[in-house]
Amino acid sequence: MNFSAPADTAHAATPAFAAALDSVGMRHIDVIFTLADHPDSVLSAKADISVNLPRSDKTGIHMSRLYQHLYQWTQAEPVSPATLHALLNTLLYSQQECGSSSAAVRLRSQLLLHRPALKTEDLAGCKAYPLELEACLDGDKLSVSLNLDIGYSSTCPCSATLSRQLLSEQFCRQFAAQPVVDTRHISQWLLQHASLATPHSQRSTARLNVDINPAHDNFGVVQLIDLAEHALATPLQTAVKRADEQEFARLNGANLMFVEDAARRLHAALKPHYPAFSINVAHHESLHPHDAVASVSHNR
95 CB contacts (<8 Å, ≥6 apart)? Predict the structure, then answer.
């Protein structure tokens, strides 16, 4: 007895409701890949992949082809703007019968980097930087972007002013009756009372979205991280000793910033290097049960 292969239901049937679809695909696919910026590091990721379905007479796309091409692509060579372009072209070619003219892919992962201590030589630790790589090909128009999360510390300028005011008032009460005060006494008093009131600071997050030139051979992830951390001046630390913690405290005191200040610092740092970007900053308040946020974008 001969058995015929089962019919491809998604392509043999006629859809009950005829309509073109902007996007069809899969989300949260588990993949591993190497990044052109760091070809020796294997990253795990969640991938989203899709094409449009302009033909209203087609029940569905060839979904399995998307998966197979994605898997083969991640195994073949490091991910770069150029290889993303090649993947999107392959996806469109695989859906010729559906008339697909646009394709998109997104990779969500994190890059683990060794970061040195602020002061102590030969002391370092690992820090993860969440990132997303996105690419979209619509006809002949290709767009590639990088989303990156940067963690840092922020100390409130208003809180610092109030703390200094309390310290000043206490100092005046302590020494007002003395016409001359020995600097040694002042130094000792400060060691005991300078933390009478402390400014509040909090862990903060900046999400950067930058357009990447599709002709570039990598995404410049580390360059963007270094640019942002230098602009903010108070990046989160990994391994520390007392000298590093003290330096971190000094940097926070020297770089007091509201959420608006952080957004503007990053805008000034990115503007000379990226033609288009957006910045979203959140200070996860220690004073309040809510976040302070700010955003800014730029298009040259």
Answer: 51, 61, 62, 65
Residues 40 and 182 in one domain: no
Query: Which element (helix H / strand E) includes 87?
Result: helix 81-94
Task: Specify the number of domains making up the chain.
Answer: 2
Closest by CA to 163, choosing from 202, 200, 201, 198, is 198
State whether residue 197 is helix, strand or coil. Answer: coil
- 12-60 pLDDT, tens digit per residue, is 567 767 799 999 999 999 999 999 998 888 999 999 999 999 998 998 9
What is the tens place of the pLDDT at every residue in 259-283? 999 999 999 999 999 999 999 999 9
* Final residue in a domain of this structure, among 147, 166, 193: 193
- What length does the chain have? 300
35 and 166 in a single domain? The answer is: no
